[in-house]
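The authors assume throughout that readers already know how a fold can be written as discrete tokens. Each protein is reduced to its one-letter sequence and a matching series of backbone shape codes. I therefore recommend that a typical entry be quoted early in the introduction. For illustration, here is how one protein appears when written out as sequence plus structure tokens:
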Amino acid sequence: MEKLRYEFDPHNRLVTSKSGLRGIRKVLDGQFRISKGNSLSYHVKAPVPADIKAPHQVKLRGNWSLTKEHQLRLTLDKWKRQTFGDQVTIQGEILDVRKNSLLFAVTSRTKNNVTSRYILELSGSWQADERNRLTFRVNKGKESPDSLIFDGVWQIDKNYQITYRYQRKQLVRKNKEVHTLIFKGHWDIRDKARLSYALEGSSDSEFDFKTSAGIFRDNYIKYELGIGLSCRKEPTRRIITFFGKWKIKKGLGLVFEVEQEKRKIQALVFGAEARLTDKGTVSFKLRNSLDKGMGVKLELSRDIFKGDGQVFLRLLGSKKESTIQAGVGWRW
């Protein structure tokens, strides 16, 4: 009995062939779809050729990954490999990154050479792996999530946002085009050897980077880390420096205000144990948003304190020391 075998061509179309009959192949126009648990299926557009007993829908199960060319790949489980082979690689480009999802633009072509484009959306969460690489963990319900590893060096733009660039070859012209992904979010510092970047509007997606001990000064905060890429023996060095000003705000705490483009301010908020020194400065032992000590000491001139800062200095002068709680402010 002849068996049907399936494969996907470079235009993301399903192709069928019969065992034992070389050269007889049929292209079935259709589209990929993502359903519950990020499972993949291919829906064939009617009509199906009369001489092919192919299903109108093909369900595919396996493990998601990202190729070197940043294409989506599904490594099939053993029940599908005899019919489809080991892997399905979806040709296209990453269109956008969102707080809990990844959008992938799929490019296809009909038998009449008409190009079409549609979107697949994978749901999950963004994290940093043990090498400080950006990673998207694909949600698979009760199963363990799959990891899409962005095995390249990420950057910081003028707004202190994380950006990621990758190159890929165009199928037709064969020249390389650059794609840029922007991760919108905000920074958080909870430890002297760890730096976090939370995606905007999400409680699940956060890059938690391992770093060397941070350096805290009167006009900057600096961290250094390494990004371990598969193609390099040594990690790629990355230095992140936040330039700004320290302020005391009664209802917030000790704040380091970072100025971005168009004078937009991002505030890094800390708690602290504060005391006046004999040198006329204020010494701070920083605490994070969980009110835990960070192991960071900071000494600031009294001259930087204005507004609420002046009230705080008078309080500090009367009590000799005071505690500031992040997100709450200082205690009277």
The chain has a mean pLDDT of 86. Helices lie at 78-84, 308-319.
